[in-house]
Amino acid sequence: MFRNRILASTVVLACGFASSILPAHAVATDYRFELVGKPQLSGQKDIVQIRLVHSTDGKPVPDAVIFESTADMGPQGMPTMPAPVKVLPAKGGVYSFEVDPGMAGTWALHLAAKVQGEPETVRGTINVDLVK
Fold this sequence. Notes:
Distance between the termini: 78 Å
Number of domains: 1
CATH topology: Immunoglobulin-like
Number of helices: 1
């Protein structure tokens, strides 16, 4: 009986020690998308710049992979009105998107990204005023 208690205590202690030295992973809610400046008009399209930030330390995440980007007029009460979005090359942790809105107004830019080393997908929505 005494031997089983010692063995059980050793296992519990080892598990506690192992979990304390394993690296902790952040969760998707530890990140946020931020608008960088105002959108710039380029021809008939708006260029929107976004930064992905690690919320706990405020540092930008320069090496995320943006794999989903859509835009709609949800903030204007028209969520079924989409706009084409093209992902442009990232520069220095700033992710750029070319949005071709059908009309001027407030648009919701929905994004999904994978951050290296994180198991969860980071999702976010940025409301942005586009001018057509």
